[in-house]
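Saturday, quiet lab. Running sequence design on the structure tokens for the scaffold JK sent over.
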């Protein structure tokens, strides 16, 4: 392998036995060997010369994730992933576009190179780039000890992978599975030429018989690649707070910095409020809000912001099932900021499809943008070699109108629009064999039309969007979420924007009045869009166009 412009090799390896090691050899510079910890994952970093040939070999160890970094243009070009050939054992650069070109990978929704990801973290714009960190397990397709993955974008559409930013503490990695936890969710706050990061460090015994410790930590960065030594800023939870005490999100109101944290107080889901003048010393104020009605274990990943003259809090309901049978919905609360509490005036569900969790927002140039984690809440993930579990929604622009949260996909996503494959109106539409199964459909209606739109079909499984007397909803068949009513809380449907992306779909209703995300694994390389309306005359227009990939 020739290093080209790269000067660092990063390998995530697990030793199997005391002899586990990774060896990197070049004719000119000789051999460097690093031990892969026996039974635990080590993050091995090798400094390499650019434009040199190296041979990588592994002994008694398993490599799960591997890339070249250290390139000068890393913020533009990202890292270069290496994959190991199963037969020869040789590591070689993988082709990015080809890697993502798979029916079970999204074409234009962000997902990691492979393996598990969850919540978006540390979203911000800094020195010309949008940064997205996210919860990641580089070692497998299931949740495990948490790292912070990192990606960067100029336009919120095309992302490039950057080196993993944060790792679980050494005591967790070296505990041989006895301790679990790691770098849990958190946020970023850019201040002049520095970015402050806040995160939860979590530690508990895997047997579940010990104390669960969650503390809030901070670190800073000036280049988004190197981070200062972490400092614990909140070590103890306030009286009455449950063991769930995590996911800091920081915002500025006036001259004061505030932090919200997800927790429960005396058995009720609560968003806790802290304040600080210097971003380092934090004082507990009181709860920003307590959820009195719903039966939830705690709030996770709360967010709080000023928006369109109101204040908006959003939080994910851990351990909750709603009246429709939907799991772990997120709820939003609109109100005013009174005595450092949110005086709630109206509220609603964040995403009616319920495969969207742990959203996080940030502000840039007057826009409030959020990204949610597309979460396989119903156990529908299909594991396959080099697959990924977890992806992100299209970045959404948030607004409040008449006390209601509106969400629309950022306009930049339209840059991916390709060939129009159907244009019509006043009639039913049947478009089949859609190559690549990545498309955008827009439907406008003269009045509230009853319809059934088939969005995907695969070996006895299907997903449809239905509007009838029971309202607008996503209906799945032949999959684990069958029977659950994914209903949008809208009175009528006048406009739909549907983003089908291979194994998932996002639906935006009436220019943002509701948004719904639903996973649907479709092993076929071709998609479909079949619209049957009760009164097709009232369908004003239908347009279906292909969407390009963000990885090309
Ligand atoms: C939400 C969550 C967070 C936590 C993280 C751990 O999905 O459970 O509360 O910080 O994921 O990965």
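Result came back. Writing it out in full:
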């Amino acid at each position: 392998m020739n290093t080209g412009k790269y000067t660092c090799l990063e390998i995530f390896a697990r030793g199997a036995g005391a002899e586990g090691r990774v060896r990197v050899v070049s004719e000119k510079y000789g051999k460097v060997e690093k031990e892969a910890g026996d039974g635990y994952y080590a993050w091995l970093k090798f400094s390499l010369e650019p434009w040199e040939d190296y041979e990588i070999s592994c002994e008694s160890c398993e490599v799960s994730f591997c890339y070249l970094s250290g390139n000068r243009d890393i913020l533009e070009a990202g890292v270069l992933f290496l994959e190991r050939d199963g037969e020869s054992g040789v590591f070689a650069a993988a082709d990015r576009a080809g890697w993502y070109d798979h029916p079970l990978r999204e074409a234009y929704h962000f997902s990691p190179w492979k393996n598990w990801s969850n919540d978006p973290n540390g979203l911000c714009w800094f020195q010309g780039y949008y940064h997205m960190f996210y919860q990641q397990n580089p070692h497998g397709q299931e949740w495990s000890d948490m790292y912070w993955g990192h990606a960067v974008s100029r336009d919120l559409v095309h992302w490039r992978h950057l080196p993993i930013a944060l790792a679980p503490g050494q005591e967790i990695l070296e505990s041989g599975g006895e301790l679990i936890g790691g770098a849990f969710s958190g946020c970023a706050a850019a201040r002049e030429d520095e970015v402050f990061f806040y995160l939860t460090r979590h530690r508990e015994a895997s047997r579940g018989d010990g104390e669960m410790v969650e503390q809030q930590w901070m670190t800073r960065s000036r280049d988004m690649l190197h981070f200062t030594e972490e400092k614990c800023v909140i070590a103890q939870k306030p009286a009455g707070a449950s063991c769930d005490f995590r996911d800091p999100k920081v915002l500025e109101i006036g001259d004061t910095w505030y932090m919200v944290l997800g927790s429960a107080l005396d058995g009720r889901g609560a968003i806790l409020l802290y304040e600080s003048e210097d971003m380092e010393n934090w004082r507990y104020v009181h709860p920003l809000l307590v959820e009195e009605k719903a039966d939830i274990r705690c709030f996770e990943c709360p967010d709080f912001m000023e928006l369109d003259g109101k204040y908006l809090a959003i939080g994910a309901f851990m351990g909750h099932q709603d009246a429709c049978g939907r799991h772990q919905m997120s709820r939003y609360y609109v109100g005013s900021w009174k005595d450092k509490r949110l005086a709630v005036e109206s509220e609603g569900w964040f995403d009616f499809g319920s495969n969207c969790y742990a959203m996080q927002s940030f502000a840039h140039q007057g826009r409030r943008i959020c990204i949610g984690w597309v979460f396989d809440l119903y156990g529908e993930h299909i594991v396959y070699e080099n697959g990924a579990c977890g992806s992100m929604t299209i970045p959404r622009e948030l607004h409040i109108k008449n006390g209601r949260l509106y969400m629309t996909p950022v306009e930049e996503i339209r840059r991916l629009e390709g060939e129009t494959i159907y244009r019509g109106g006043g009639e039913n539409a049947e478009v089949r064999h859609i190559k690549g199964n990545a498309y955008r459909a827009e439907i406008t209606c003269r009045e509230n039309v009853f319809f059934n739109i088939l969005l995907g079909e695969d070996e006895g499984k299907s997903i449809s969007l239905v509007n009838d007397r029971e309202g607008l909803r996503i209906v799945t068949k032949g999959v684990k979420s069958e029977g659950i009513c994914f209903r949008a809380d809208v009175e009528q449907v006048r406009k739909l924007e549907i983003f089908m992306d291979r194994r998932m779909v996002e639906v935006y209703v009436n220019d943002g009045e509701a948004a719904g995300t639903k996973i649907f694994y479709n092993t076929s390389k071709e998609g479909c869009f079949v619209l049957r309306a009760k009164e097709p005359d009232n369908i004003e227009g239908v347009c279906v166009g292909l969407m390009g990939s963000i990885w090309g």
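Notes for JK: The pocket of beta-D-fructofuranose is lined by residues 118-119, 135, 146, 184-185, 200, 246-247, 300-301, 357-358 (CB under 6 Å). The longest helix spans residues 96-100. Ask whether to fix the surface positions before the next round.
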